[in-house]
Amino acid sequence: xxxxxxxxxxxxxxxxxxxxxxxxxxxxxxxxxxxxxxxxxxxxxxxxxxxxxxxxxxxxxxxxxxxxxxxxxxxxxxxxxxxxxxxxxxxxxxxxxxxxxxxxxxxxxxxxxxxxxxxxxxxxxxxxxxxxxxxxxxxxxxxxxxxxxxxxxxxxxxxxxxxxxxxxxxxxxxxxxxxxxxxxxxxxxxxxxxxxxxxxxxxxxxxxxxxxxxxxxxxxxxxxxxxxxxxxxxxxxxxxxxxxxxxxxxxxxxxxxxxxxxxxxxxxxxxxxxxxxxxxxxxxxxxxxxxxxxxxxxxxxxxxxxxxxxxxxxxxxxxxxxxxxxxxxxxxxxxxxxxxxxxxxxxxxxxxxxxxxxxxxxxxxxxxxxxxxxxxxxxxxxxxxxxxxxxxxxxxxxxxxx
Length: 402
Fold this sequence. Notes:
The chain is of the alpha+beta class. It has helices at 6-23, 44-64, 71-87, 97-115, 117-120, 125-149, 195-203, 252-255, 310-313, 320-341, 346-366, 373-396, and strands at residues 158-163, 176-182, 185-186, 192-194, 207-213, 221-228, 234-241, 244-249, 263-265, 277-284, 289-293, 296-301. Helix 1 packs antiparallel against helix 2. It is globular, with a radius of gyration of 24 Å.
């Protein structure tokens, strides 16, 4: 393809992708944020990060197509504003000025990167090695942040319990809870708990036990037991979701308004009929959770480094193999920039060593599960893909090494 033709075609393709992703009907939130809101809702920071990331390719494509001066900074907010107005008529979509601001920021980042293509695309081997080492450090920081954000952050105050509660946006569970305990603490609708007592037993590994009569299989998340604090914030949720037993607890990701991946005992309700007596249990250990439903027990349930994508846009409805594939894809995407700058020098070798050392040590230090083999494969794929993109960029964006 003629080098002069591919940037405009890329720009058109990126605009098309943006329109498809932003104008598809979405799931209705519990509340609609005001238009003037900048970081809105329970997952406002996650939305802001995604809005920045969505428009980075647009800014890069504008720069590669020769747009300069103030024109890109007019076009990006104009496109974003048009999308926001159109979303007023799309079911399940919300409109806010914050989306326009973060989209414009993303486009500016893309323009900035393209404006320094000689540094990022064709650096000399010495600079490339330093960039690879910096990229390795960034990935390690993302991994540490993942473990930190997924650690429990139980709010202080007084907790109240709800058995099979009706929660807006969630399916009701049509079974009946008989009793619930956390260690020696009894948990019931008529009993309030001091957060310090609950924190002490939960963080120390006491088991949360629930006895109930089973309802029919649910189609989506159906709460069995829910604890909330005086400000109506969710502290713990034990729920049925189709055949799985799902568990949520308040963590640091909730505090900064990121998304919230769940923990699951897969297939737990598969052999249970409506009206059967059941006993469910969840217990926290340092790097994993033990979950049980009847005779089905697993003590290796937890998060791995690859769940980082779930802090931005968790898809609880997706099959387990899709979520596992997204874990691998997340690891792959994270290291593509590093692979782009790898060269045959000491700095690059140090970067690779530091990356794989971090993949081994960060989980133990932050309370995550050990990194699975497939996620290590994702790292190798990302390094290879990054190097392949470097060779392609050398052809499409010929610039002098600096």
